[in-house]
Amino acid sequence: QVQLVESGGRLVQAGGSLRLSCAASGRTFSNYAVGWFRQAPGKDHECVAFIRWSGGSTYYADSVKGRFTISRDNAKNTVYLQMNNLKPEDTAVYLCAADPRKYGNSRSAYDYWGQGTQVTVSS
User: Fold this and answer.
1) Is the CB of residue 32 less than 8 Å from the CB of residue 53?
2) SS (H, E, C) 8-60
3) CA-based angle 40:25:120, to the nearest 5?
4) What whole-number distance in Å separates Cα of residue 83 and Cα of residue 4?
5) Among 12, 24, 53, 71, who pairs with 16 as Cys (CB 3.0-4.6 Å)?
């Protein structure tokens, strides 16, 4: 098993930037694909980005393409989500998820989840 802890969420003004971190413990994190999801009140989970095991392949939702960047530092067992030009519609709880065998933009692609970190973007 792997344990995931997100951090970095806070209140930020529109147009600002944040970097979220997903720190893993318990297993060799480089063997896991990692996805960042978000859930706004009253809405379903949305996968905003994922990165495959080696870090060479990434995916971004259209809603964040060009503004968000996912990256990983396997030496630190951490995956990052750099978020630039934030908009009020980016307000949500952001969660990271990991899996050693699957990847994709659906919740079912990941077996391990963190508790989430709140991002609030004010207009």
Assistant:
1) yes
2) CCCEEECCCCEEEEEEEECCCHHHCEEEEEEECCCCCCEEEEEECCCCCCEEE
3) 20
4) 19
5) 12
Q: How far is residue 31's CA from residue 48's CA, in Å, rounded to a whole number?
A: 21
Q: Kindly report, residue by residue over 64-114, the tens digit of the pLDDT.
A: 999 999 999 988 999 999 999 999 999 999 999 999 999 999 999 999 999
At 44, the amino acid letter reads: D
Q: What pLDDT sits at residue 30? A: 86
Relative to beta strand 117-122, strand 11-13 is parallel
